[in-house]
Amino acid sequence: MARLFIVTPAGAGLRNGNRHTALRWAALARAGRHRVRVAVQWEGEPCDALIALHARRSHDSIARYRQKQGGAPLVVTLTGTDLYRDLPDSPEARESLELADRLIVLQEAALDELAPPLRAKARVVYQSADPRVTHRPPSDVFRIAVVAHLRAEKDPLRAAAALARIPDKNMELVQIGEALDERFAREAKDWAAREPRYRWLGGLAHERTLAWMAKSHVLVVSSVMEGGANVVAEAARIGTPVVASRMPGNVGMLGERYPGYYPVADDAALAGVIARAKKDQRFYRSLQTAMRARRKLFAPAAERAALLRVVREALHLRSSATRARTASLDQSSSP
């Protein structure tokens, strides 16, 4: 049993991806008989290993930990903004990666963003979900769901723009997520005012969000930047097909050959995929089959095993290094 300290830049009360990941990992590690604490910073608290989410935003804690704890085990988790925005321009993010004993990425395509020395110490830990609801969409309307906070990285209103291109009146779009940018709040209200098939429900409790996903024919994941959306894992576990922007974070979760992609920020193409999913039963079944093929990747047991494997590796690396230094000192002090 080890004492683990998880650092996340998302504080208590926030409902973003980093916070959910930190709390879920804490629960999984406790199930593996580790003691875990979660905080926004590490300030010298005793622990056997530090797991930091977000290479740039957690850099202060990472650097402080390495300075004060020397060779103690350090694991850094790369988010989407780390991989696809911060690394080229942030010395702090790059230093965090260099200081780490192990790196965690949340989907397989993320490995392609790392230089070979960093890739060698990176491990994929797919996020898991245990929704306990099953896919039961309505029979009287084709429902599309979007589940994401309204911020630029999510391109959150792309599905609304796509819906406006589809003349079929027997469709509806349910948008779930808090507006983290007032501009998107205004746009969502404008869409609701002029498009009767569109509803913005705002932020909902997790159970209600999962229920809406289960009651939708497709989930649209329209991100322009993504480290590995947990909502994809939830959809796979529920059985709801995903229509996703073809960008690395989505491809890493769904696989290169997944049939439900559209080009990033292309609402005309997105409209075409949605319309096809409604009209073409063979295509819709292909989406369902492809989602089932990914389902095991996102099982809680798989995530726990992968996470604890990374922790064991980091602990073993440092204990081996300590033994080697001790042996070297003993040898040098021998007559």
Write a brief structural summary:
The protein is built from 13 helices and twelve strands. With about 325 residues, the chain is α/β, with parallel strands linked by helices. The longest helix has about 35 residues, at about 300-335.
How would you describe what is shown here?
- This protein is α/β, with parallel strands linked by helices.
- The protein is 45% helix and 16% strand.
- It folds into 2 domains: 3-128 and 299-332, Glycogen Phosphorylase B (Rossmann fold, 3-Layer(aba) Sandwich), CATH 3.40.50; 142-297, Rossmann fold (3-Layer(aba) Sandwich).
- It is elongated and about 65 Å long.
- Residues 321-330 have low confidence and may be disordered.
Tally of individual helices: 13
Q: Please, what is the CATH homologous superfamily of the largest domain?
A: Glycogen Phosphorylase B
Terminal residue distance: 38 Å
* Mean pLDDT over the residues: 92
